[in-house]
Structures are given as C-alpha cells and as structure tokens.
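WARN retry 2 of 3 for item q-0093 after timeout on previous attempt; input resubmitted unchanged.
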Amino acid sequence: MARAIGALKICQRKLAQHQVRHMRIVATEACRRASNGGEFLNLVKEARNRASDGHHQARGGGATGRDLCAPLVSAKTEQLLVVDIGGGSTGWYGLTSPAWPRPSARAIMRLHQGFGQEETIFPRAKVVDWISVPLGVATLKDLYDDVEDDGARFALMSWYFEEQLAKFSPYVDAADQAREGFQIIGTSGTVTTVAASHLGLKRYDRNKVDGLRMTSDQIDTVIQTYLALGPEGRRNDPRIGRDRHSLIMSGSAILQALLRAWPTDRLSVADRGLREGLLYAQMCRDGVMEDGLL
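OK item q-0093 returned
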C-alpha cells in the first residue's frame, strides 16, 4: 500500500507539471478482494484520485480494451470473444453485430459509448454476454499451490477455471454457425508470452506479436513445451522471463479452458489492454477520436 501511494504521488506531481485536466485511476481485482481494500481506497481518495468497483472495471477495461482490438477483427467474423487474463481476475466479453462482417471494426469502436443497445443511425456491436471471473494467473496459482505434481496442478487449474464459465454464454446459435464465423482475441501477458514462445523470440518484439493469429494446436504445442520444461526449465527459459515463469502455467490453464469453451480453433493476439483502452475512452469523450479517423 505504501509503495502504491508513493507511486501515485509521483504520478500526481507529473500530472501537475504537465497541467493534466482529466485523469482516471482504476483499481483491479486484487484491491477489491483485499480485506483492507477500503482502507487503501481511502488513502487514494485523500490524494483526490478515484478507484473503480468491479462493474466499472469491466466496463472501462472491457469496452475500451476491445475498442483497441477492433482492427484485429477478421472480415469473416460474425461473433467475437475478447478475453483479458489478469492477475486477480479474467474478463470475457462476447459480442455480435448485424453489421458483421463490415463495418465490424467501426461497430466495435463505438462501444466506448457504453453497453446500451439503443437504436442509432450508426451500427454498433451488441454485447451478448460478459463476465469477470475472480480468478487470474496469481489467484488461480495460489489455489493449487499445494499440488506438487506439475502436470496434475495444471490439469486441475484448467478444469476448475472451465467450471467457473458454466453460466457464461458468449455466443448464440453456435451449432448453426460456421467455425470460421467465430473469433477470439486475447489480450494479456499470458497470451503475448505464449505467442512469443511460439515464434521463438528470445527478446520480446511487440511488432511481431501484436496481431499474430495462432491455432489451438500451436497453443497446445507451446503449453506442452512448458510442461516438459518443468518449473526449473521455465524459470530459465528466455522466452518466458524470470518475472513471469511462476505464473505462466496458471495463465496457460486459463487459455486452454478458453479454447475449449469457444467453438473456434484460432486466437488473435493483442498486445493492448486496460491502459490503452482508458486513454482511448477519454480521447473519445473529448472529441479527439472521430469516426472519420478509423
């Protein structure tokens, strides 16, 4: 808490220096779950900042996060799922639109206006369903930390996460739709790490990862490689990095459950997320982003 407040004070000085008029600070799942989260929020409010509750994060991070994923939507996509795997939670957002396949990107970009489905002269994608599961790479890992066998721990994590999605229906009439009409876009450190491993990158390169499309077989191959490496091998693998090696298997378990729950065999990788989405939302609110720029 002290480190976070110290970081916010540094940000506050920079904001004052640059005469920033509008700001948003978002607290994610870890803050909401903490028993002393309210105490921390009071400290933040004393610095005249604002943190969000769960719904605000889902709306602010989900709606605006998928706004930035809009350019990655395939021309063949009829229904779309955007997933963001966080440390303490995972957000899923299922979308469809009568405007598919074009102008699908524009329809998604207009979602910064909110989840309302009121009629307008402009096409807007429809949010079929959304959910924020209070399990992310850190919380899922902690749940099964007492399981010693690496493979068994991974299987249990993947099974348990899939169980949490039983009531989530991100698509409609799936049996009547072609598989190519469904698309998943993943945005998280787990997804980009798996993509970097697939490409064999020893040094992360956003230009090669962002927008990459991976098949479920390619993702499974990477995950099996992680399992074969074991904890020590993953710790020393430059594609994973020492800052992510302890969390990559719980993230991979979530990713595997995702591919089982959604009727497609491809995933698009997005190196973009909450921070960029919040910035985009503020730019739209202030009239900086116009439809003509897309």
